[in-house]
Design a protein that fits this description.
Strand content: 15-25%
CATH superfamily of the largest domain: Histidine kinase-like ATPase, C-terminal domain
Structural class: alpha/beta
CATH topology of the largest domain: Heat Shock Protein 90
Number of helices: 14
Low-confidence stretches: none
Largest sheet: 5 strands, antiparallel
Number of strands: 17
Mean pLDDT: 80
Shape: elongated
Radius of gyration: 45 Å
Number of domains: 4
């Protein structure tokens, strides 16, 4: 890039310093720089020139232009320490770029031009600069004062604009503060309303559980009496039955047993929802259980066009589980499949998933199927899929909700997949061997009542006693009265969040040793001090493994 020389000046006395200042301002104006930039160039040159004159060092200043820059080069005898001088430092702030010769002796200052040099008549600029009259000290001082006055006026104008801007910002801040305050009041009111509704829902749920429990207990007594009387009638000590009487008595006994099973399931459901269903695992023969179930439920060939088959993989053999509860779950699933399959097949299959050490039971049918919008609703209590076949099939709408609750209490999951008109597949996954850690007391600290209920179900049979807290402050108060062995802690809670609660526990000698498992709605991040689980898709086996790790101090 070629530099085009405009003018050169030699500094030898004080008069030359005044001339340099004026020359800098004139050159800046001629090459198109605006008023403030003209003052910046003149001021920087005045300071650099004064320093050169004060140490009696002769200096030459060259003004030139390149494609889009004004270049001012100062050759001097100040040495390499010129970079530390006040004049050079000032030039660094007023010019776009200042470079120093590493060996000392040259300063190169650059200012970007608003136009290309092709828009300038360089010969005319040189001629005007050559005929520029010398500047006197008084005249230059007056010009300097005029520049200061103009700069002060500009500063005052900017200050007025800044004040107006500040007033606008304060008005906007006041408006936003008022809106935020109004929003906060609304949030507080909404939180109070939600808290009241949650309290009512809890009361309603507790009343429903009490109703189910009481009704279940009240029904068991007459049903057991009916079954006992039937056995007396059909037993060897009773009068001989004639004609249709034996058949009728067997029907009475069968119906009473069916009702008793339903009552037991209602009672189990109430216990499971309250987190008080305690599985009693034992070693069972999966093949024998499945075949017995098929023998009991297999439809007669005269009344059905449905084939029920059972297949248990060789890898399953035995499992450690509550046999009664597992049988009830599978009976529900197979019975449902038979109810809603008019013709075709129902298959009960079992295999071992070695990757998770789970026994996977599937009940697949070729029945009417379930629409995608109803796949989760069928797990709601008393819900039944609308359709013509449902009119002819008796049911309570409790079978699948009961089956899922019991599956969770057993440490597993129950899911459905289906397509209307093509059939339904129920998949039950259970731990191959139930080995829950024994915990005397647990605390669930979470403001979500639904999650607390889920956690209580998943912890059924694990803890001898389970406390619940709706926020961190309530949790801290409960822990100080009865320190738990393990606390299941939500990180986001009102009043006192999870992180603050952990800090309080760390500062308390009584609570410092309590094991902690935290839960979050966000993707979990590993913690150096305790296990962290996601609430999404939380399963009993993962929760129990986290509790075991927290108690043992190993959660890597």
């Amino acid at each position: 890039m070629t530099d085009h020389e405009l003018i050169r000046i030699r500094l030898g006395d004080q008069q030359d310093v005044f001339a340099l200042r004026r020359l800098g301002r004139e050159v800046a104006e001629m090459v198109g720089l605006k008023g403030q930039d003209q003052i910046r160039v003149a001021t920087a040159l005045s300071e650099v020139g004064r320093e050169a004159f004060d140490v009696h060092a002769a200096a030459t200043v060259l003004f030139s232009v390149s494609e889009r820059e004004l270049l001012i080069t100062v050759d001097h005898r100040l040495g390499a320490d010129i970079g530390a001088s006040e004049g050079v430092k000032l030039a660094g702030r007023l010019f776009d770029d200042v470079t120093l010769d590493p060996a000392g002796g040259r300063i190169r200052m650059t200012k970007v031009l608003p136009v290309s040099i092709h828009a300038l008549d360089l010969d005319d600029v040189r001629a005007r600069l050559t005929h520029l009259a010398p500047a006197g000290a008084l005249e230059e001082l007056r010009e300097h004062n005029r520049e200061l006055a103009a700069t002060l006026e500009e500063v005052m104008r900017l200050n007025e604009e800044l004040q107006e801007t500040n007033q606008g910002v304060m008005a906007l801040y006041s408006q936003l503060s008022a809106e935020l305050d109004q929003t906060n009041r609304g949030v507080v009111a909404l939180y109070a309303e939600l808290d009241d509704k949650s309290r009512r829902l809890r009361q309603s749920g507790e009343a429903r559980k009490r109703f189910w429990t009481n009704v279940s207990h009240e029904l068991r007594t007459p049903l057991n009496s009916i079954i006992g009387l039937v056995r007396l009638m059909a037993g060897p000590g009773g009068d001989p039955l004639t004609g249709e009487q034996p058949h009728q008595v067997r029907l009475i006994e069968s119906s009473a047993k069916t009702l008793l099973e339903l009552v037991d399931e209602l009672l189990d459901m109430a216990k499971a929802e309250a987190g008080r269903l305690e599985p009693r695992p034992s070693v069972i023969d999966v093949v024998a259980l499945a075949e017995q179930l098929a023998m009991t439920l297999r439809p007669s060939e005269e009344t059905h066009e449905v084939t029920l088959s059972v297949e248990v993989a060789d890898s399953v053999h035995e499992m450690l589980v509550d046999e009664v509860l597992l049988t009830r779950v599978l009976r529900n699933l197979v019975s449902n499949a038979l109810k809603f399959t008019e013709r075709g097949t129902v298959k009960l299959l079992a295999h071992l998933d070695t990757s998770t050490d789970e026994v996977v039971f599937t009940v697949a049918d070729t029945g009417i199927g379930i629409a995608a919008g109803h796949l989760e609703k069928v797990f709601e209590e008393f819900f039944q899929v609308p359709g013509p076949i449902q009119v002819t099939v008796r049911g309570t709408g409790l079978g699948l909700p009961y089956a899922r609750r019991v599956a969770e209490a057993l440490g597993g999951t129950l899911e459905l997949s289906s397509r209307p008109g093509e059939g339904t597949t129920a998949t039950l996954r259970l731990p191959h061997r139930m080995q829950p850690p024994e915990v005397r007391r647990m605390l669930i600290a979470d403001d979500d009542a639904d999650f607390r209920a889920l956690a209580r179900r998943l912890l059924s049979g694990v803890a001898a006693h389970i406390d619940e807290a709706r926020d961190g402050a309530e949790a801290l108060a409960l822990m100080r009265v009865n320190p738990p062995d393990v606390v299941l802690l939500d990180l986001l809670m009102p009043r006192l969040d999870g992180a603050a609660l952990l800090q309080h526990m760390a500062d308390d000698d009584l609570l410092r040793g309590v094991a902690v498992v935290t839960v979050t709605n966000d993707p979990p991040r590993p913690s150096a001090s305790h296990p962290v689980l996601s609430k999404q898709g939380l399963r009993r086996d993962k929760l129990l493994a986290a509790i075991h790790a927290a108690i043992g101090g190993d959660h890597e």
